[in-house]
Amino acid sequence: MLPYATLIPLDRQLSTPLSTQIANALIRHIRQGVMSTNTKLPGSRVMAALLGVHRKTVLTAFDELTAQGWLMQVPAKGTFVSSRLPDVVPSPLTELAATSMAQQTGFTINKKPFLEIPVLKTSTILSFDDGLPDLRLAPVEQLGRNYRNILNRGFQQHLMGYADTNGTPFFRQQLASYLRDSRGIPATPDHIFTTRGSIMAIYLLSKLLLEPGDVVLVGDLSYQSANLVFDECGANRMCIPVDGQGLVVDAIEAICQQQPVRLVYVTPHHHYPTTITLSAERRIRLLQLAEQYGFVVLEDDYDYDFHYVGSPILPLASADAAGMVVYVGSFTKSIAPAFRVGYVVCPPNLVAALGYRRRIIDRQGDTILEQAIAEMLAEGDVQKHLKKAQKTYHARRDHFCELLKTTLGNSVAFTIPDGGMAVWTEFDKAIDLPQLAARCRNRGLLFNNGRFYQPDAPIVHHTRLGFASKTVDEMEQGMEILREIIGL
Ligand SMILES: Cc1ncc(COP(=O)(O)O)c(C=O)c1O
Questions:
Q1: Is 343 in the pocket of ligand 1 (CB under 6 A)?
Q2: Which residues of 103-137 are buried (b: 16+ CB within 10 A; e: fewer)?
Q3: What is the pLDDT of residues 88-144, one digit of tens each?
Q4: Which of 23, 38, 257, 447 could form a disulfide with 128 if both were Cys (CB 3.0 to 4.6 A apart)?
Q5: 34 vs 351: CA distance, rounded Å
Q6: 449 CB-near residues (< 8 Å, 6+ apart)
Q7: Rg for the chain (alpha carbons), in Å?
Q8: How far is it, in rounded angstroms, from Cα 53 to Cα 117?
Q9: What is the crossing angle of helices 169-183 and 381-408, to 10°?
């Protein structure tokens, strides 16, 4: 008889029932050939005594394995490993003792090296990040209260089930009126499609609208994650220069005169990564060109809420009566990145098409979170939070730019951004930026080494230094590390 007490180790601390542990162990030994087909198992009483469990536990395990086809019960003879399983050559017992998961797949994965760009993560270490909100200011109390209330209220059942793929109706309604009030987009709930953040919106739209070879125009530079999506879709991505007024729209026209353009990706409010605002004149021209040449304007308004000079310029979508602009936004910057609620604003026929596309990978969004945010919008909590955050970030921008100037002097050059949460900073050519970033990291200050923004450039001198998430003390601490390492 096999040493069942050793082969079937049971751990009573685990939440896995003992019968399941027995069944799993037996499956493993059958798979690995320790127990070959037609092996007779001890009777349930004997097995129970060997394993120190109740007989019913063994019977439950045997019944389950019989139902799954691993074992067969032969009347008046006993329980056997099923004769219909293929024979497996046994491995040495020492090998069988390994219970950890494999570190590598046993099959190949088609590699796409262009996708393998590291993601930026929020860190608990001091950092001048890519331009992230201060999570300490996030209105989590109101959000948590709303979330809990929704679950307690008793009408949660319809929210906890399968729901509308396009988004929670109350959220779409509240968002439409918020977008009308805050940025002049005359949307109705039928123009809103919810997603789990902007990047998902960009992905779904690209999958829906792009065919391999389609020309997609982006700024030089642009948002790498969007570039990856366009490349993944097989688009023919072409770069347009960006100057002091944003995307050079004349260059877009020049390309349109040569060949069909399917989509232009823009971050007009604060161009990513350089933070430049697209001038009013170029906005109008871009809309005219979109109508004339029939291309989609994909407007990624990732940080609309934070603008410090005059009133924010209204989005392109607010002036688009022809249905050429698809507007993407999210609450990941205005509340916090962990709360994955974003949206697309577009004509209803595109909302419907997005819904069909989304269903393939994600049946619906986070309905309860959408409802909780909708209630915050209805109660004015989001608006109040943004007003406060905007004031704080404005002061932080001023302080940060002043510090950059006074602490780092001629080692850096930058334009004070009109809005957003980061400063596009150029380091002196004599400074090796990736090396500086690595040395600062060793001293406890993280910032992007610039390669994220220009993965193909042989040398990089620019990076984004985020100020919004840092208090004055933290900024000063970080700046001091930079100053020391640069050697000023
Ligand atoms: C330009 C731009 N678009 C979109 C996003 C992604 O936002 P989300 O977290 O909503 O997917 C970011 C994130 O930093 C961004 O910088």
A1: no
A2: eeeeeeeeeeeeeeeeebeeeeebbbbbbbbbeeb
A3: 655 555 555 566 788 888 899 988 887 887 777 887 789 999 999 999 999 999 999
A4: 447
A5: 56
A6: 433, 434, 436, 437, 438, 460, 463
A7: 29
A8: 52
A9: 50
Please list, in sequence order, all residues whose beta carbon lies within 8 angstroms of the beta carbon of residue 72, skipping any fewer than 6 positions away: 66, 79, 80, 81, 82, 83, 84
DSSP 270: S
The response to whether residue 223 sits with its C-beta less than 6 Å from ligand 1 reads yes
Helical H segments across 294-408, by residue range: 348-361, 367-379, 381-408
- 337 CB under 6 A from ligand 1? yes
With a pLDDT cut of 70, the percent of the chain lying above it is: 97
Nearest CA to ligand 1 atom 12: 302
Q: Is 339 in the pocket of ligand 1 (CB under 6 A)?
A: no
Which among 147, 129, 139 has a CA at the least distance from the CA of 388?
Answer: 139
| 33 close to 87: Cβ distance less than 8 angstroms | yes
Average pLDDT over the chain reads 93
Virtual torsion, Cα 298, 300, 304, 310, nearest 10 deg? -50
Q: Of 470, 455, 454, which is closest to residue 393 (Cα–Cα)?
A: 470
Q: What is the pLDDT of residues 384-440, one digit of tens each?
A: 999 999 999 999 999 999 999 999 999 999 999 999 999 999 999 999 999 999 999
Tokens 């019968």 correspond to 19
Any idea what DSSP says for residue 69? T
Which atom of ligand 1 is the closest one to the Cα of 223? 1
Q: What region does 217 belong to: left with phi over 0, alpha with psi -120 to 50, or beta?
A: beta
Nearest to 135 by CA among 381, 331, 307, 337: 337
Tell me the two tokens of residue 108. 């190949």
Distance 371 CA to ligand 1 centre (A): 22
3-state secondary structure 118-143: CCCCCCCCCEECCCCCCHHHCCHHHH
Q: At what angle do helices 381-408 and 367-379 cross, to 10 degrees?
A: 90
Please state, in angstroms and as integers, the Cα–Cα distance from residue 309 to each residue in 103, 339, 418, following that order: 52, 28, 5
pLDDT of residue 285: 97
CA distances from 103 to 100, 106, 334, 345 (A): 9, 9, 38, 42
